[in-house]
Amino acid sequence: MVTLAIALVLIFILMRLAPGDPLARLSEDRPLTPAQVVALRARFGLDRPVGAQFVSFVGALAHGDLGTSIQYGRPVIALVSERIPATLLLGGTVLLLNFTVGVWLGVRQASRRGGAEDTALTLLSLSAYATPSFWLGLVLAWLVGVKWHLLPAAGMEDPLLDPAAGWLAHAADVGRHLVLPALTLSIVSIAGTMRYQRSAMLEVLRLPYMVTASAKGLPERAVIWRHAWRNAFFPVLTLFGLWLPILVTGSVFVESVFAWPGLGSLAVGAVGYRDYPLLMGSSLLVAAVVVTASLVSDLAYAFLDPRVRLS
Amino acid sequence: MTVLLEPLRLAWRTPRGRAGALVLLAIAAVVIFAPPFLPDPLAQPDPIGGASLAPSVTHPFGTDLYSRDVLSRVALGGRISLVVAVIAVGLSITLGALVGLVAGYFGGVVDAVLMRVVDAALAIPRLFLLLLVLAVSERVPVWALVLLIGATGWFGTSRIVRAEVLRLREESYVRASEALGASRRRVILRHLLPNTLGPLLVAATLGVGDVILLEAGLSFLGLGIQPPAPSWGGMILEAREVLVTAPWAGLFPGLAIVLTVLSVNLVGDAVRDAVDPRGA
Amino acid sequence: MAAAISAAAAHAQSPDPRSAAVIVTGGEATTPIPTLMEGPAANVANLEVADHLFLRLANLGPELITSGDRSFVPQLAKSWTRRDSVTLAFDLDERAQWHDGVPVTARDVLFTFERARNPAIAPRLAELLRRIASVTAESDRRVVFRFSRPYGEQLYDAVWHVAPLPAHLLEGIPPEQLRQSSFAGNPVGDGPYRWVRSVPGQFIELAANERFFLGRPGIDRLVVRTASDADARMNLVLSREADAMDNILPPLTNLERMAGDKDVRLIPVPSPTLGFLLFNQRDPADTSRPHPILADREVRRAIILSLDRGLLVRAVYGPYGEVPYGPASAILWIRHGTPKPAGLDRAQASRLLSSRGWKDSDGDGVLDRNGLPLRLTLNFPASSAARRQMALLVQQQLRQVGIEVVLQQFEFPLWTEHRNAGRFDIDFSATSQDPSPSGLTQGWSCGGGTNAAHYCSLTVDSLMQVAIGSSDHAREAWHTVLRRIEDDAPAAFMYAPSYVYAVNRRFGNVTIRPESSWLLLWKWTTGAPAARRTAGY
Fold first, then answer.
1. Angle between helices B108-123 and A276-304 (to 10 degrees)
2. Do B222 and C315 touch (CB under 8 A)?
3. pLDDT in tens, C346-364
4. Which of A196, C63, C110, C353 has a C-alpha 20 to 30 A away from that of B229?
């Protein structure tokens, strides 16, 4: 938990040091008089020294109060918790696809190394990874949503769906809206997962005991899945630790192209606004997730390979 | 310079590596030598009638939103994009490998401290770290920008390398080597590092694409390349508005990026095969 | 299982007999309540949704004239009389009632203005309402406004800035708690639509107020959806998941895309946007000294003459934009009758520059004087596609007369900081103007809040005061102001565009108002009942 504290302090300092002022955005269209500026600064506590601001932030945090967003005028906790379900849904789906399809494809590539399939998949995955996610999203939204009219082009729900329609209809509605953004994010992230998994599998397949097992005459499939897979899972576990926070905050581009109401777009909007309370709140969440994910993957290493000694 | 050429030399041994190296050299050649022979990439000859024209004989890659020739912008833009990518990614994987190796091998306090720092850094959005620079000085020269991008991109790689090392240091041949009295440096360089080349390679390949796009996002923030100077990532971001109506404006820089990533991958694969002590 | 799913699908598919309209906008309306829209909440999204829920005393007429007493349209107030040069009396319509059935009375007006004029509660509104001396009730339905002095926009100030709130629901709630109160989550108004629900980050649903005394709204359900990305908004309209969207942004290819859909009608509406290149008259390095290059009026005039502003506007906005004369956007009623802005005249520009001592003495293509090259930085925010496109062209055009322009794009808060601190040579500014020309004092008077270039002309200041004070001859007085400003050339006024809205053709009687887009949506009619718009079934 020391990490969390360090991260928080660092984020706080960085934000305050970065040039730009939340009040800049406020005077975008309707300029503020000096008196108004003074009043607003006082209201948001910006006129106090940075140290004092941090102390009051921590104090409020101890009471579970993350402050009020400058941009929205609502409690940060409310704003963040409203966005969590959408983020979890999208992130969870993508993670699931990654660790099933992604791992499977990577392993498959490794076992058929050098073949036509391996080359094709390499080409595909690298192209997919090098493609900006917003591009892919825009193309999918336009093709599938507008031109072919198969799925919704944006949003998470159909606003005209009768609220009393029953949970199944609602679930189906959200599900249909989920397909395109999840597909977009998955294509790009699976491409990366595949590369790492393939590389890791290749390492393991070359190990002496693997060659021995193959020589002993076990059918190749069994060899791969029973012996190699476990060991090759290590880097992918690390990937889990790395990608979990990214997927929790969502890909900002994907959220914006599909108007998906997740945390990512909230956080980036807060950066552009210099909305300090909202930034701290969402950063706190991300930091907590990262730390947890690191912990989980460290424990998983130890579990998977008892020889590994952790500090 | 020789550092850059060494991987190409190693890659030359295999047909696939050769193909990758050739493509990379071709891209570099176009980027270095072609621009003087192409139309001015900054000129907007006809902002109303000449904008977003489809590819034709006069404009093989078409024109962009501002009626500028896409081919010459891709050629000139490659200079900055490639330089940024190579140096920044090189820096990232070097730092990532270093920290991962040290943390994984030595363990104990060293590991704990290093990983806490890495975790804290991962918890901070990369954007912030880069915004901080603006606080220090507003006009950041491109070389400083490149170093900064590299310096903020190694955290994830270090965790992956560390994971590999954690697994590998228990392997019998590593243990044997240590028992025989090999120095730590030797163990790390001879046994551990080559085996981590796999994930490092993947990180490098993926990082090239990441960095080019990151550089574009940064110019949006006022760091880095100012308009009208072109860069591949910047072109893709600008082309977003005409994605459906004029796809060539973003397609060609995108293809350039993909080609670069692919050939880096091929070269890297060949390098890894050449270096791997146990052979393919 | 399959039976259950198809049953659910069938249920969802059974046609809703109520008519519906879905609008998609870029911003999210989180607090659409008068007197709460302060600071960041004073955004277009909140203002527009508030206009569905709450009724003003009167609206602007079709010509958007803000001066005088005649050109306004009665809403809550069915009529008004002027008693003397500083007193107006309003008679409220007896039919008006809040959504909970309670009649609207003078008490509501008094209550609202008491809060709105209090700088501690609503600083922005208090500033706008500063010339109102008192608001009193003579009876249940008569309200009297007294002003601090005679001036042309008394009626405008009384009716436009704030719509009355229900006193009977809010009197007991202290102002600082209003934001967290249940009223804020479920506002009760007196307008054509009433609140149904809000799904944060996604949409707000409103329902027609069947007892609306000015007429029953033609559309039963109104949904205001949010999508911050312009492409997402366009896709929603093209896929029929939304019926209307506000402003199709540049580049022009977006307009072409929407125009290609024959079921979508494009509606241009004068916009309050004004873009201009602001010339800093002080040295950015030391704001106490004049700018070494731009303090010279002839140089500023030469720059304006070197720009083909018509070409620039056409390149970015196509047929939907104009070159403004003076700082007058398309929404300002005073722009009618102004002279044509100066066009491109490079010969004259070069003459002006050389007459002021600027020559190309070292043959590098850039003019110089006493060793100082004619090089200027041009700041603009990265978020504005229009300004980015124009800045590139401006750079190109000015190079042809020997002026070197260095472009600098910034993240928005940074750009604002540079602007406010005066750290620029040329700033590509844009503002969103109120319908009242008195807002010009903000940017163009000596002490103006947004006058970042320190442009100061006492003549213009006094001319503006005269114009603000006049009632019948306001237009001529403001034209004099605009002419003086153009003469002084503190900025090159670049664009006054029209917004282009997209509305599905199945709606009839569609009017979009420049001062508040969806103000008259309640008068729209819909042809066929809403067909299910969802795809995939």
1. 140
2. no
3. 999 999 999 999 999 888 8
4. C353
